[in-house]
Design goal:
Number of domains: 3
Order of helices and strands: HHHEEHEEHEHEEHEEHHEEE
Helix content: 25-40%
CATH superfamily of the largest domain: CBS-domain
Strand content: 15-25%
Radius of gyration: 23 Å
Shape: globular
Length: 288
């Protein structure tokens, strides 16, 4: 007769070995990272393991976070039709600063795949081919349910080497989008690249009465630099993110619209379960 206790012990030991391998992998990965200040010119006596421990803790929590918690909502997805011309592709890449863009037929609920900037630039940039058919440029992307955990999605992206996934609802429609950068930010925090808002300028004016701001922008700085005053000495918060949090008493989700008593609207452009990242402000007084 099969000894179930032995099998259970074997399974438990196998799971412990897998967890130890994961831990060792991330230890090696992050110990070679500049994020831990381990370059040769750093005094290692001042090195703290705390950042590494925080990252390992976040890795362990990936299985508790669902795709629905971090997805970019459908209304914020930059996508392009399979009828797009060469000029249309150039325009959307230049305006969006994205490297991967979903391609659809008629509506986004009928996705075909994605187009990659590298493929497009190599073939059609620098006096390349002028004949263009977007359908020949489309790469596959992943389709995942909103209930999938982030650890499973990360493994899937690594295995299939596809770094973008459309989130599909129970009716087959597109619910949102997730990239591998969104997943990695759950481990290492915000990833700021050369196209993100500069550290010294945490806001941009998109058009009259509309501003895109980073949640950590201080209210006093915004008032001084842009002339937009949300600051009140009685407030217990100092940043735009704190202001929005005070209006909801919780972390709002991506795509959520929050209003203050003066009619100003705060659209959550980017957020995760732990914090607000970017906000689009629609002022009630368009003259500001």
């Amino acid at each position: 007769m099969e000894d179930f206790s032995d099998n259970e012990n074997k399974d438990k030991k196998s799971l412990e070995n897998q967890n130890e391998k994961k831990k060792n992998f991330f230890m090696r990965f992050f110990s070679n990272s500049k994020d831990l200040n381990l370059s040769s010119n750093v005094n290692k006596k001042n090195f703290s393991k705390k950042p590494l421990e925080e990252k390992l803790s976040r890795v362990k929590k990936l299985h508790t976070i669902r795709v629905a918690d971090i997805l970019i909502p459908k209304s914020d997805i930059k996508a392009i039709s399979d009828e797009a011309s060469l000029d249309d592709i150039v325009k959307i890449f230049s305006l969006s600063n994205l490297t991967r863009i979903p391609v659809y037929n008629e509506t986004l609920d009928n996705p075909l795949g994605l187009i990659h900037l590298k493929d497009f630039a190599i073939k059609h940039g620098f006096n390349g081919e002028k004949s263009f058919d977007i359908k020949t440029e489309v790469r596959p992307l992943l389709y995942v349910p909103p209930s999938m955990s982030l650890d499973i999605l990360l493994q899937k992206m690594q295995t299939e080497r596809i770094h973008m996934a459309l989130v599909i609802d129970e009716y087959g429609g597109v619910d949102g989008l997730v990239t591998i950068e969104d997943l990695l930010e759950q481990i290492v925090g915000d990833i700021i690249d050369e196209h993100d808002v500069e550290e010294g300028k945490l806001w941009t004016k998109e058009k009259k009465g509309i501003y895109l701001v980073h949640a950590r922008l201080e209210l006093q700085d915004f008032s001084n630099q842009a002339g937009i005053n949300f600051f009140n000495e009685d407030n217990e918060y100092e940043t735009i993110g704190g202001l929005v949090f005070s209006l909801t008493n919780r972390i709002p989700v991506r795509g959520e619209l929050v209003k203050d008593k003066d009619g100003n609207e705060f659209s959550i452009v980017d957020a995760d379960p732990r914090r607000i990242k970017r906000i689009r402000i629609y002022l009630s007084n368009k003259d500001e």
